[in-house]
UniProtKB/TrEMBL annotation, chains A, B, C, D:
Biased composition (Basic and acidic residues): 1-10, 18-34
Segments crossing the lipid bilayer: none
Family per similarity comment: Belongs to the deoxyhypusine synthase family.
Organism listed in the record: Haloterrigena salifodinae
Record-given protein name: Deoxyhypusine synthase
């Protein structure tokens, strides 16, 4: 057998007597034993996050994410929050709105899709749990039936299409006219102005119509002076609606105008944190914001399911972002590679728990 | 614009007055609105799991997994637990041992690697947190240094190799001799007999040497008459050690003997549940057990990160297992596709919480 | 043993005599035996694709993708090509440019990042193979060194930052001034106008400076009247440059203007095909284009590594798009879930092979 | 704007004149420009692999895999081939058999499932292409129907269950009796002895019954004196059948016996290469083989879809294996993270192409 390494020596005597052996000098690691996670009934999410700290791989990453998030939620840190993917249709809307209201988010970068679904719920529409395919139908036939019945499917969440008609009315009555007037006077409005007015309208209609579901993310942002940036707004039903309305009047959107105030915020941030859920444009745009600031992010948390070896930006590690100057050299950053609908509520709950204690 | 679907009609009047519209008849879904997860400081894991039930995709799967696990932990259900992957080195050891002691696991199917690491910790060895690569070294150079320094790396967990020497002594002194005698009398022993004796020895040494870390999984199984099956034991350091010892005496292992008692347990189970963490042999062997029983699993939970379109068994859906007769037609089954070091503690904590309330 | 299914009957006699048994009636599948892929030295890519057709899972999907692509490249089909991810830095630039020149792409939707990198190569910059971390450095330290040395890393591809200075000059001298004049006269220009002028300038400079590398994608599009749409242009260095330039003059971009001509093309397409590499905005925007057309895509191919159960759009199945009316009910569509830098050249090579024979 | 990095300087003059700039000294990378893949109709797979060498990420990995495989197929290298996953049902059987016959595989480590399916095809059974769910059925209902109709599903490949009855007869008539006799004389037989006899019987029946499909992997191994190791044989229908037969006679399997000859081969190999398709036991057992040899693998290629951050062995990087002494410090190793049904035929075809030229 090999002398190379000690997976078992022929002479077992030296260990036979149970003596502890002195640990050889090693540069490869410091004493940091892996503990074991322990769970019990009634434990809090904060306690679970602590237990994760005893474990390895994903659990350890999540534990670290809670630490970094706790630091980020400190008052002196300007938090840039990137929200991608179908986070609103999948039930994450409330958590984001609450974070905004509690002052933990200073800037939001998201997709037109999330704003669309957020608005639909604000004005009374509802997404429904469904199946990827219903009883008695294949996935393909089921999608064909959905199409015939006017129901859109987002994985296993349904959205009846009449809600899109409501959304259109909402925009044409409550949102676009004011913006069109501004366009008549000043030229194109910024996309942020659109999201701001959308938030105002969502809040107003939600209250006026006494809608069960809360007013949501855009409303919370409006009411708390948190700007929402949506660089790819055309890539959504909101964008389609804006385009259709723009055909018949002065209303249009300026694609670049938002980058000035956003850069200002980044420039003036004492400390900056990036919290990114999912990948895509919200992630890249959030990180890119620091390219033209003298400082970069001091804190960064990324919750994503995208594997990192694909070369695409969404799975790119935050360390890679360091090469671009998007992260400070000594930034606290961590990525958790798991389904964000599981990790996001968990990280937030645990971080809030820490802040309270 | 298309008449095809209602992503916005030119005539907004009918919706303008805010009337609720009657919902058309739809077979594609029933009223089951997606709620939104809400989190707060101090919430329990059980409450978080409930909140997941409001959400979609992974969160909804996890919520369902908690439900099914709660059902499985009922006394009348015989639980077959499959544990793959590096669950012991990554901090999951305690949870599994506790589940065994609490009577929630009736049969354990696992890998030689997990038994190896479990034993090492029982007798006083420790895994350590480390980096995938240490300061000042590339990943490759770092692994070369680890090799030179006698440290094995499992992703970002380290294991100094002298612990393998301890493990060998442990086996040669406390475990193999008794088995060798049995072999001299009765021929080869079963693999389960090996795991049983290993558990007995782990418990004994752990107590005798007053080791800080608990006696672990195999010890708990031994003390609670829970058989451990390990079909691929040769594929591990435990298996290597067994082989080396077998060179010099009568000791050897029977590859098939365990399938008889395992089949008996399956045959006589009133209700059966399969809880599978990871994939690989433990998963397949656990599911396969039902192939020769008249009934199949009534409950099944799978926690895995393996994507399901690869064709490999690890990512195979539990529904696919239904075609093989491994699941009852009306089995409650769910898969959660996310890092198991995150989901496993979470699901167990929430299920225990439910059982208590 | 179970009577449930025939994984082995005790009575082997009936099969023992080697008689073929009549196949019972089954609705679950038709006779379509899986063959086996066979490979040999010197085989063409087209032949390899044929062999994939004998196999299952990913290989079968890829085979089907070749079929659909072949159909799409037919002259009567208007092809909308979505290109996401870091496809230019990872060596896919030439293939896309060639497809445009050969008339196989009618509309291109892509990211600002791809246009940025495409331009940089057109004017003489080069990406370099590198390591995720260089000898003697950790991944993090390496990224810090890259930062100090002015080199950006995209996974394992490097881009020295002086090329971004060249890119800026290129834009400020060759591209923006013309557009600024148009803005002075007509108000904001469309993003497509920007990409068009960029392509013209890339072609001109590439020739004038006798650059080794070809003029690239935007140049090919310009020379072949293929419009390039880039809804999220602000999310890129190109967008940053546009913004900086817009600070000092009349130049700005209209976020919505492109949706009119794009919708026209979709409206008038006899048959339409969507070929999407990666996910993100290019994918969604390409599929969304059909929402306001009476017809939808007849053909769709998606090459992506995004797993489909995450709920995010990038991994959404094309079948899901059917529920939204983005695909015709009888559309030929297929997704290949694998690294696109591997599958894209392969699918294109095989499809071109088919077209020739 | 930041002085930190050169994403654009306000002063464009220095680059405006088109001068080439001297490249600063950099340790981070050497001149190794990324080219661009180019494809054309009629190109060979070898040419495609060369083109991948110009590209990045997965394509570059695949190119390197071809290089390493070419080296491995050299006569002086002893190749240990690990085959996991459902590679036989998904059409990869022929390629492996051919590699064995051409002398490119010296040792095979695989799963009982692959041997089962390989034998079934050898004796006349066929797998069929199917759908994950058939027309008019949900995935779950479809699997229930499959179960009722006696058809097993492996993702989208079907296997009628009567073939399992044939397989049982085959084993009981052609394979087990000889082994039972050996057991009566010498005690348990090794698992390799079982696979050897299975291969002999597959070849014999395949010829005798004039079966269309080739005799397959085990037959090729038998005819070329290539030992097949299957440490987890119990975890398969083959294992179930062996167990059932063992109930009624002297036949049984020795779980450890194979490790002696396998270690001998490893010990005496001048140069050793590991080619691993998929993960699981075949991968680990193949790599583990070198733990007790003075040398380790000089070459290693891994084709897998398992992401590497899960902590499980299947996705573990080959670099990690270096820390365990399973790879030589200067081993040529590469992993390609993509669907193996796509990459495996491709890599083999290209490597064979290289060998011929």
């Amino acid at each position: 057998m090999s002398d190379e390494h000690d997976h078992g020596s022929d002479d077992g005597d030296s260990e036979a007597d149970g003596e502890s052996h002195h640990e050889p000098e090693r540069e490869t690691f410091s004493h940091d034993p892996v503990g074991h996670a322990e769970v019990r009934a009634g434990m809090t999410v904060g306690e679970l996050a602590d237990q994760y700290g005893n474990a390895g791989v994903g659990a350890a990453d999540l534990h670290e994410a809670v630490d970094v998030t706790e630091s980020m939620f400190d008052d002196d840190v300007t938090v840039f929050f990137g929200l991608a993917g179908a986070m609103v249709p999948t039930g994450m809307r409330r958590i984001v709105a609450d974070l905004i209201r509690e002052g933990h988010i200073d800037v939001l970068v998201t997709t037109g899709a999330n704003l669309t679904h957020d608005a639909i719920e604000a004005i009374g529409g509802k997404h429904h749990h469904g199946e990827v395919h219903a009883e008695g139908k294949t996935e393909r036939e089921h999608d064909e039936t959905l199409r015939d019945e006017g129901v859109d499917r987002i994985y296993n969440v349904y959205l009846p299409q009449e809600f899109f008609a409501d959304f259109e009315s909402h925009l044409r009555e409550e949102v676009f006219p004011v913006l069109e007037e501004e366009c008549e006077e000043e030229g194109a409005v910024s996309i942020q102005r659109l999201t701001e007015e959308l938030g105002r309208a969502n809040a107003a209609v939600n209250e006026r119509d006494d809608v069960d579901e809360g007013p949501g993310i855009a409303a919370a942002a409006y009411e708390n002076d948190v700007p929402i940036y949506c660089p790819a707004v055309q890539d959504s039903v909101l964008g389609l609606q804006a385009w259709m309305y723009s055909q018949t009047g002065a209303f249009t959107l300026d694609a670049l105008a938002d980058m000035t105030p956003l850069t200002d915020i980044a420039f003036h941030a004492e400390e900056a944190g990036a919290f990114v859920v999912g990948g895509g444009v919200p992630k890249n745009f959030t990180l890119q914001t620091m390219l033209v600031a003298p400082d970069a992010y001091d804190y960064a948390v990324q919750l994503t399911m995208d594997p990192k070896q694909t070369g695409g930006l969404s799975g790119a590690t935050l360390d890679e972002a360091r090469s671009w100057g998007k992260l400070e050299k000594d930034a606290d950053n961590v990525s958790v590679y798991a389904d964000a609908t599981i990790t996001f509520p968990l990280v937030v709950a645990a971080a809030l728990d820490r802040l309270e204690n």
